[in-house]
Specification:
The protein is an all-alpha fold. The chain has 2 domains: about 90 residues, no CATH class; about 70 residues, no CATH class. It has 9 helices and no strands. Helix 5 packs parallel to helix 7 and helix 7 runs antiparallel to helix 8. It starts with 10 loop residues before the first helix and ends in a 5-residue tail after the last helix.
Length: about 160
């Protein structure tokens, strides 16, 4: 799979590539591996997000692999893609604190979309792990007072904890 030739800023190019690869066996595992390559992490993560949106449901093994990759992503776009499909991942107990700390840091990211989706990921962690609920509620309440309108809009769409 040669993702280097795909323009990560062109939705048409990304959709075309996805159309060509969507039937590949074990595509989600190959894309997870490619997300770990910094020069193509944005393209690979967009394709993975598209694949998950189209019905791929990561099992615990794939979720664990994806979450390990997520912790090492550098680019804001790749991080955003992962945050957008975070709700579909099973969070193993051994990663919950690392993920919480990482996502908590992302709530201060310069990019408002990364911040908005980071709160969604914290919310997802709090649903899976009740020990995070009180802190997550406080963070969401504080963000509703101080964040950009686009972040607040995302927060209003979160179900109650």
């Amino acid at each position: 799979m040669r993702l280097e030739i795909c323009d990560p800023d062109s939705a048409a190019s990304l959709r075309e590539v996805y159309g060509e690869i969507r039937e590949c066996p074990d595509l989600e595992f190959e894309l997870a591996r490619l997300c770990a390559e910094q020069d193509i992490e944005t393209t690979a993560s967009w394709l993975l997000k598209r694949h998950i949106e189209r019905g791929c449901r990561p099992n615990l093994e794939l979720s664990r692999q994806l979450l390990q990759v997520f912790l090492d992503l550098r680019g804001w776009q790749a991080r955003l893609h992962f945050l957008q499909f975070f709700q579909h991942l099973a969070v193993p107990p051994e990663l919950k604190h690392h993920l919480r700390d990482f996502v908590l840091d992302l709530t201060s990211d310069r990019n408002k979309f990364v911040r908005a989706w980071s709160f969604s990921a914290l919310h997802r962690l709090a649903i899976s792990y009740p020990e995070f609920r009180a802190e997550t509620l406080r963070l969401i309440q504080r963000a509703m007072e101080s964040e950009a309108p686009s972040v607040k809009a995302r927060l209003r769409n979160l179900p109650a904890l």
